[in-house]
Amino acid sequence: MSTPLPPPPLPPGSTIGILGGGQLGRMSALAAARLGYRCHIYAPEADSPGMQVAAARTVAPYEDAGALARFAAAVNVVTFEFENVPAATLDALAPLVPCRPGVAALRIGQDRLAEKAFFESSGIPVGPWRAVHSLAELEAGIAALGLPAVLKTTRLGYDGRGQAVLRRPEDAAAAFARLAPHPLILEAFIPFAKEVSAIAARGVDGTVVTFDAVENRHAHHILDLSIAPAQVPPAVAAQARAQVAALATALDLVGVLALEMFLLPDGRLLANEMAPRPHNSGHWTMDACRIGQFEMHVRAVVGLPLPQLGREHDAVMRNLVGPDSYAAWPRLAAEPGVALHLYGKVQGTEGARPGRKLGHATRLLPLGRLAEEADAAALAPL
Ligand code: AMP
User: Fold this and answer.
1) 353 near 323, Cβ under 8 Å?
2) What's the pTM?
3) Ligand 1 atom with minimal separation from the 187 CA
């Protein structure tokens, strides 16, 4: 029996609908434009970073059935750049237009309990965890996993919001009362050596390509640096790529998927969380690879081939967060070895509030250069 041929790609000139108006949609739309595609951004906020560069825009709530139907009629395929788009929005669109990735990956990625269970059922190692619906379950979980432990909301948590590190049994009740909505998830505290992530893209025909694994460092719970490639043993780097590739296939995903992992001192990797979309820890690929994560995502979504390419540079990406690091943009723009990306969120002094991701800068280095450096952070832009 012959395998059915994948559907032909959407031709250039077609319109990609993107749910969400943030910088990930903006950079996806820019990559799509380079290949001749138009993007229609759907988001509740007007003048979002994505809308500034889109061919068409819909400003409407994600629950607006009429606006969603008009959007579906105006686009050839739908993707999302914001993982908290309500699953019901994709449910409403799916009968009308292909949605890539589909609602299953969105749903799993929105719920840490579903995510952990899915990792386990896909053979991806995770640390010990328990679902917590009550204080009694939390106390039982602490007895089983020990302290310290990390208690997290299962939904809408990001950048360290919605979590508490429990160090003493007395911390449990207050953390349980503070974190909402319930249920929560209790995780054993992982004494990681490094945080790493890897990104895969999977096409409509099931082809999977991966980018090099990177090391991520955070400041104030927000990604600060991505170091590409992660300075880890080759077997660990290969394992990280294999795990994100296996996950993309298990999810039957079409598009880009990021997997964040903890690297233990003994070399084991434990999955922490995934994002079924382009990811901040993949921004370095825009400049250090011939096809970056945003173009890979666009290619996957429209059905174009996904070439497995190598990295062309070592790279250190730094997020420009809030007014202080944003203020360095003129100097970064003048540095020949640095690629600067700004997201259009700042007009005058507006929009530059602390904690907001306003842009990123990537220092490009010759291949192998990072291995010569005691600490790659010394080469970070800024
Ligand atoms: P998350 O929102 O799950 O990405 O968590 C934010 C950050 O908290 C991670 O990047 C880690 O630095 C830290 N963290 C999260 N979960 C754990 C854990 N189980 N053990 C140790 N550190 C954690």
Assistant:
1) yes
2) 0.97
3) 19
Ligand 1 cavity residues, CB under 6 Å: 127, 150, 157, 160, 187, 189-190, 195, 218, 272-273
What is the identity of the amino acid at 238? A
Give Cα separations from 130 to 106, 143, 243 (angstroms).
22, 11, 22
Which residues lie closer than 8 Å to 1 by C-beta, 6 or more apart?
A: none
Residue 347 pLDDT > 90, yes or no?
A: no
Beta-carbon-side half-sphere exposure of residue 360 (alpha carbons within 13 Å): 26
Mutate to test the pocket of ligand 1, among 222, 272, 280 (most ligand atoms within 8 A of CB): 272
CB 198 within 8 A of CB 232: no
The answer to whether residue 157 scores a pLDDT higher than 70 is no
Mean pLDDT of 301-305: 98
Using CA atoms, how far apart are residues 298 and 38, in angstroms rounded to an integer? 11
Question: 263 alpha carbon to ligand 1 midpoint, in Å?
Answer: 12
pLDDT one-digit tens code per residue, 206-241: 999 999 999 999 999 999 999 999 999 999 999 999
Q: In what order do the strands lie in the sheet with 129-132?
A: 129-132, 184-188, 149-153, 163-166
Task: Bin 267: left if φ > 0, else alpha if -120 < ψ < 50, else beta.
Answer: left
Question: Per-residue pLDDT tens for 117-145?
Answer: 999 999 999 999 999 999 999 999 999 99
Residue whose CA is at the smallest distance from ligand 1 atom 18: 189
Residue 348 has pLDDT above 70, yes or no: no
